[in-house]
Amino acid sequence: MFSFFKKKPKPEAQPALPPETAPAPAILPEAPDAPAPATPPAAELPPVQPDIDNVIDAAPALEETAGPEARAEDTEIVEAPQPTPEAKRSWLSRLKSGLSKTSSNLTTLFIGARIDDDLYDELESALLVSDAGVEATHWLLAELKKKVKAERLTEAAQVRTALRSLLIDLLTPLQRPLVLGREKPLVMMIAGVNGAGKTTTIGKLALHLQAHGQSVLLAAGDTFRAAAREQLAVWGERNNVSVIAQESGDPAAVAFDAVHSAQARGTHVVMVDTAGRLPTQLHLMDELKKIKRVIAKGMASAPHEVLLVIDGNTGQNALAQVKAFDDALGLTGLVVTKLDGTAKGGILAAIAKTRPVPLYFIGVGEKIEDLQPFNATEFVDALLS
């Protein structure tokens, strides 16, 4: 460990210090003949650029400059509190009511029906109308026919039960919990098209996270839409949550500042709002990639969650959004909003069959309690009730 000092000749004019007064090795001065470190020429220093990428490249890593209090010491899995029986019944009632338009076409098929080709044809039409998609519909029908034959089902109610089982099997891979406490801060980047409800979803999620004992910081990364910053600030005031915002500027810089602030404060979760954009707007999709890169420069492991908020009323267009945003960003989770009153609830089947990104939350209303974790069995029971 100290070979560097042993190789240096000991100065003859300096007598050895007694052992009890010798300085500790950790603060041993360099030998007098050790050359001073050379100052790098100016040409080797990174140039100062107005672009946020170059500015951050020239800055020290925030993970190294943040104090120890800003780092998570141990991974902590935060368990979601169990709802009361009354709250659970209320949620299931709202879910059933919200999916009533989608379920009406499916449930009426099995009333007094005979198990024949006409039933399968009507079921195929109902699934396609609900935007389950061609691939998921054909898979469900093929598996249902096999099940009916193998189990020798003879009544329509039995076929309905078999369809329920297949739908649960199809949707269960989407059912994954949002694990908290594995990083500090846990950085979540929220994306989506215009009007999907990103900002409102962020406000509702902030309340959920606080209910799980998490401190939250919001970043107003939507610097384009009028009043987007003010809307997020209202949610911040409502939930008593701090908001990092700039009146104008680069949204990547806002995200970077938010990560830095959360590290300094020891905040549990950072949620970065982004401007709505269509997948076909390539320059705006490139900006999302830039925001993700800049967040990683503030914290190497971040963002830990990249969530896409989807409007459940968009049907098959939602599947196209999932594919485009997943290809661009590498999605870790989905939030499907506005399922209440839609006839297109089958889109979850299309997502599960084609691009099974975890579905963390679904929303069936405007109230805060109308956004709940996705449960495949509850969803299917509401759909077929």
TrEMBL record:
A cellular component annotation (GO) from this entry: plasma membrane
UniProt entry tagged with the keyword Cytoplasm: yes
Location of the region described as Disordered in the Swiss-Prot/TrEMBL record: 1-88
SRP54-type proteins GTP-binding domain location: 358-371
Catalytic activity as recorded in UniProt: GTP + H2O = GDP + phosphate + H(+)
Domain of life: Bacteria
Regions annotated as coiled coil: none
Signal peptide extent: none
Transmembrane segments: none
Principal subcellular localization: membrane
Topology with respect to the bilayer: Peripheral membrane protein
Residues reported to bind GTP: 192-199, 273-277, 337-340
GO BP term, example: SRP-dependent cotranslational protein targeting to membrane
Alphabetically ordered keywords of this record: Cell membrane, Cytoplasm, GTP-binding, Hydrolase, Membrane, Nucleotide-binding, Receptor
EC number, UniProt record: 3.6.5.4
Subcellular location, record wording: Cell membrane; Cytoplasm
Subunit structure, as described in the record: Part of the signal recognition particle protein translocation system, which is composed of SRP and FtsY. SRP is a ribonucleoprotein composed of Ffh and a 4.5S RNA molecule.
Function: Involved in targeting and insertion of nascent membrane proteins into the cytoplasmic membrane. Acts as a receptor for the complex formed by the signal recognition particle (SRP) and the ribosome-nascent chain (RNC). Interaction with SRP-RNC leads to the transfer of the RNC complex to the Sec translocase for insertion into the membrane, the hydrolysis of GTP by both Ffh and FtsY, and the dissociation of the SRP-FtsY complex into the individual components.
Family in the record: Belongs to the GTP-binding SRP family. FtsY subfamily.
Protein name as it appears in the record: Signal recognition particle receptor FtsY
Organismal lineage: Bacteria, Pseudomonadati, Pseudomonadota, Betaproteobacteria, Burkholderiales
